[in-house]
């Protein structure tokens, strides 16, 4: 497994496993504490694992947490997703940058998203399972959502949106969220 910095988002990393494939399929390590440690992250800081299953066209996000934020490791364990990170840390050298990735069950690449960044994804396949490993217990009172179609972000979602939560449909613009965070 190797770790690669994401230039557009300071402190973000892609962890790329080395799959071993044969006639049975493949095997790969999707988390390696030594590799995580090698880029200055604490592997034991992650305390909660979750998984979501989405159908083609479903869009989840853009989500972030208020307060101390939430760092997470995200991996598409089955299918393919178009994954997006928005740096919303005012002191970051990549503040307001947007980076997108295709994550898939074929590659099992894991994306590390630093606390203070918004995250969202869209399912590209009929079924897409997405695994999350987060560093804090979830507190719904800290949930923040930003409109997926905010013109300032201009995210090029690859498919028409087939479904999303009511919270995501009603999300405020980036400008509104930033104004709320300043007050």
From TrEMBL:
Residues 164-183 are annotated as: Disordered. Its EC number is 5.1.3.13. It is an enzyme of class 5 (isomerase). It catalyses: dTDP-4-dehydro-6-deoxy-alpha-D-glucose = dTDP-4-dehydro-beta-L-rhamnose. The keyword NADP does not apply. This is dTDP-4-dehydrorhamnose 3,5-epimerase. Pathway: Carbohydrate biosynthesis; dTDP-L-rhamnose biosynthesis. Catalyzes the epimerization of the C3' and C5'positions of dTDP-6-deoxy-D-xylo-4-hexulose, forming dTDP-6-deoxy-L-lyxo-4-hexulose. It holds the Pfam family dTDP_sugar_isom. Keywords: Isomerase. Belongs to the dTDP-4-dehydrorhamnose 3,5-epimerase family. Gene3D superfamilies: Jelly Rolls. Homodimer.
């Amino acid at each position: 497994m190797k770790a690669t910095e994401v230039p557009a988002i300071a402190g973000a990393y892609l962890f790329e496993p080395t799959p071993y494939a044969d006639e049975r399929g493949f095997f790969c390590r999707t988390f390696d504490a030594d590799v995580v440690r090698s880029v200055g992250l604490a592997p034991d800081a992650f305390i909660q694992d979750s998984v979501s299953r989405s159908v083609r066209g479903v869009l989840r996000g853009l989500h972030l947490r208020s307060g101390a934020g939430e760092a997470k490791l995200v991996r598409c364990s089955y299918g393919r997703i178009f994954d997006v990170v928005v740096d919303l840390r005012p002191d970051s050298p990549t503040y307001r940058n947007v980076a997108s990735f295709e994550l898939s069950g074929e590659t099992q690449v894991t994306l590390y998203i630093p606390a203070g960044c918004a995250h969202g994804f869209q399912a590209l396949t009929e079924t897409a399972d997405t695994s999350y490993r987060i560093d804090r217990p979830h507190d719904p009172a800290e949930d923040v959502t930003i409109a997926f179609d905010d013109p300032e972000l201009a995210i090029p979602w690859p498919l028409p949106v087939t479904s999303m939560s009511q919270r995501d449909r009603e999300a405020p613009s980036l400008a509104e969220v930033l104004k709320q965070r300043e007050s």
